[in-house]
Amino acid sequence: MSTTTVTRTYRISREDTQALMIDVQEKFAPHIFEMDKITKKAKILIEGLNLLGVPLTVNEQYPKGLGHTVGELSAVLGEASVFEKSAFSSADDETTWRHLAMQNRHHVLIFGIETHVCVQQTALDLLDNGMQPVIISDATSSRDSYDRKIALRRMRRAGAVVTTVEAILFELLRSSKDPAFKAISTLVK
Asked: Which of 25, 53, 173, 180 is deepest in the core (most CB within 10 A)?
């Protein structure tokens, strides 16, 4: 009888990564803990992902009532695919889920709002479906900082990776010889 050895990879590679921004919308913005910082970090992340060619999917929860993605981020979305949803989990939205699955990329960088509702439910569903959620903690928030803290803890314990904008961008770069290194270094300064 032969046994199969499964090798787990802890490094996150550009070729196996996609990103998902969840519900960073106009009507939510005034109520979110440290929203200015979240928006600033999300913008850096989006611009870095664009430079690296990492596909970005954007969800907007009921935009008719909650507005669209905040203007500062809309301006840098580039070729991102934007999908309206009503489910809390992006994986429960059929169109979004189909799009994420079709990317055929195992790692999903997740950022947005709210950490303890849509971000958390999406991360748990991705884990249940064999994907690896990577929570970008400094580009993710909730109305209440305690809800955010507990959600990050729960997702980490469930198996999600938790990291930051700068850490993930440099991990995706891998080397200062990458053509995008100088531009990304400038972004994070």
From this structure: 25
